[in-house]
UniProtKB/TrEMBL annotation:
Source organism (scientific name): Solibacter usitatus (strain Ellin6076)
GO biological process: protein O-linked glycosylation
MF annotations from Gene Ontology: protein O-acetylglucosaminyltransferase activity
InterPro entries: OGT, TPR-like_helical_dom_sf, TPR_rpt
Placement of TPR repeats on the sequence: 179-212
Keywords associated with the record: TPR repeat
Domain of life: Bacteria
Protein name: Tetratricopeptide TPR_2 repeat protein
Lineage: Bacteria, Pseudomonadati, Acidobacteriota, Terriglobia, Bryobacterales
């Protein structure tokens, strides 16, 4: 759905728990050691801090970033980079705390605010991220499109589709030539079942960026949902082969629960390419869903240039749109 590619200190946060052995010594008597107290269990937070410190000590890039923040305490960009570096290494809580400190120290910094929003999202604290971003754009009404785009995405991911729409529209108002913003609004409208309006946005995204596979796939979904299956297939064939296009439409029918129509499309897909892996998987899925055998009824069609070309350019749906949805989630978290 999302393409967010537009738009971290050298603090080692230490939480040391020390186990101390105490020996009481009395004059004229043998010293009797007292049993060493059991070490308190290490919680996940403390363990991540220790692991992060170990990584930081052995990671050349992290070491440089930490040194840079120590040497340039007023450099908000260095703090943002450090937070991002820790997040990329899987230490999301550490990244979040670095971003929190950056926002506290530089409350007017948009870069610090976006870093905080991304890190909150990474630990599934979207409600706090939404509130923080809403407050920021309210205090900074001249914020760039990226801030409103993130606000729309966070609302979308929280299921607040009607609230996400005006944020996406504001982003487009500020940057009308950014194709990914039109794709994001289109997806929001698609989830609100405003299929024709969604198709308009996907077409605009393709006008701005004809090679956008995401917008191409989403346009096909919008057309299929608008009861224009022939147009959906024609749209998909502009970037793939006939087998893939018919398989994509079959995936739409599967999601709608229309298994007879799905089988018809899969027969067509496998008629073009009997080895089409996604179509075969969908045929197996339909067999499980409707209880009928997953049989191949199609007569192999003559190989075409599309089939040969498709191996290098096709983007397949596997199952009922799972692939399309997985690809959308992956571009919204891009930092």
């Amino acid at each position: 759905m999302k393409d967010l590619s537009k738009p971290a200190a050298a603090f080692a946060v230490l939480a040391a728990g020390l186990s101390i052995s105490c020996v009481h010594q009395q004059v004229g008597r043998t010293a009797t050691p007292i049993a060493k107290p059991a070490t308190a269990p290490v919680n996940a937070w403390d363990q991540q801090i220790r692991n992060a410190v170990n990584v930081g000590e052995g990671d050349y890039e992290l070491g440089l970033l930490r040194q840079r923040v120590a040497a340039e305490p007023e450099n908000v960009g260095a703090r943002v980079e450090l937070a991002k570096a820790y997040g990329e290494r899987g230490y999301h809580e550490i990244a979040l705390e670095i971003s929190r400190l950056a926002v506290a120290r530089f409350p007017e910094s948009g870069a610090a605010q976006l870093s905080l929003v991304r890190d909150l999202r990474d630990v599934n604290q979207r409600a706090e991220a939404i509130t923080a971003l809403e407050n920021f754009v309210k205090a900074h009404p001249a914020s760039a499109a990226e801030y409103y785009s993130w606000l729309g995405i966070l609302r979308d991911e929280s299921g607040l589709w009607p609230l996400g729409e005006p944020a996406h529209r504001k982003a487009i108002e500020l940057a009308p030539s950014a194709d990914y913003l039109h794709n994001n609004l289109g997806y929001n409208l698609l989830m609100q079942k405003k299929n024709e309006a969604a198709a308009v946005e996907f077409r605009e995204a393709l006008k701005l960026n004809p090679s956008s596979r995401m917008a191409r796939n989403n346009l096909g979904i919008a057309l299929a949902q608008s009861n224009a299956p022939a147009q959906a297939v024609a749209n998909w064939q502009e970037a793939s082969d006939p087998a893939t296009a018919h398989n994509n439409l079959a995936a739409i029918w599967i999601e709608k629960g229309n298994y007879p129509e799905a089988r018809k499309e899969l027969d067509l897909a496998l008629g073009y390419n009997r080895a089409h892996s996604a179509a075969l998987k969908n045929l197996e899925l339909v067999g499980r869903l409707d209880g009928n055998p997953a049989t191949l009824n199609a007569t192999p069609a003559t190989a075409t240039g599309w089939q040969r070309f498709g191996h290098s350019v096709r983007k397949l749906f596997v199952g009922p749109l799972d692939d399309s949805r997985a690809e959308a989630a992956k571009n919204a978290s891009v930092h």
